[in-house]
Design goal:
10 helices, about 40% helix, binds zinc ion
């Protein structure tokens, strides 16, 4: 009914601020997102993890210390301000159509010179979605990361759905019964390769919000064990 009324009025509400517009986002919110996107890319970022550098040169302290273990990648936005509102609109206000906006930014980034220089070499990568939480996907009816990756695919990027979350059987110990350490291990152990997955040599993991980076690390390890030579990641946002 609401949808019908919107169609009748010929207008949609902006997914972030709620004002009426013909597009998914009003001009103002889109301009703010675009500004943050450009600002982040123009700043001095760690060559490996893409975190903004303060006084360090080329690499952040963390990457310098464990260079061999770092899975290199970039997040498009910081998970705060408009960057956070965008993710919230997409994931929690159930604005599936917002996926186009993120696919736009992602495509722009993947085709940019910073992605296709010797470090990134764009064409060889296959985008692989990091699978979301099963329960959330069931409740929402769709998986935000999968929506973005599907959109990338329709723009000509190579993509493959190779990973899945494990189902916990009825006999398994409930997460509530575990201590923090056990929960962390269980969370990391909850990914696996899909049956019959053929793993390409260069995988670009796509995730929504990166926090500690442990999910990316875990998925990268799985893919490498299955034959991937190199794994990178791209997240829609990351916590500062
Ligand atoms: Zn707006
Ligand atoms: Zn770094």
């Amino acid at each position: 009914m609401l949808k019908l009324m919107r169609m009748f009025a010929g207008r949609e509400r902006c997914a972030i601020c709620g004002c009426f517009e013909r597009k998914i986002l009003c001009e103002e919110c889109f301009a703010q997102l675009k500004f943050e996107f450009e600002k982040r890319r123009k700043g001095r970022l760690c060559r490996l993890c893409g975190k903004p550098l303060i006084s360090e040169i080329e690499m952040c302290c963390e990457c310098r210390e464990n260079e061999a273990e770092i899975v290199p990648g970039r997040a498009l936005f910081e998970y705060r301000g408009i960057g956070k509102e965008g993710i919230r609109a997409f994931k929690f206000k159930n604005e599936r159509s917002f996926g186009v906006i993120y696919a736009d930014f992602l495509a722009l980034f993947l085709r940019s010179s910073e992605f296709s220089d010797s470090f990134w070499e764009s064409d060889k990568w296959t985008a692989v979605p990091v699978p979301g939480n099963r329960k959330n996907i069931r409740l929402r009816g769709w998986d935000p990361v999968a929506v973005v990756v599907e959109d990338l695919k329709s723009r000509g990027f190579a993509a493959a759905d190779l990973l899945e979350r494990k189902k916990w059987g009825k006999g398994a110990v409930s997460l509530k019964m575990m201590n923090r350490q056990q929960r962390l291990c269980a969370a990391l152990d909850s990914y696996r390769l899909r049956e019959g997955a053929v793993v390409p040599q260069s995988v670009l993991l796509i995730d929504d919000v990166r926090t500690t980076g442990s999910t990316i690390k875990r998925c990268a390890l799985l893919l490498k064990e299955a034959g991937a030579r190199e794994v990178r990641w791209c997240a829609l946002a990351e916590t500062p």
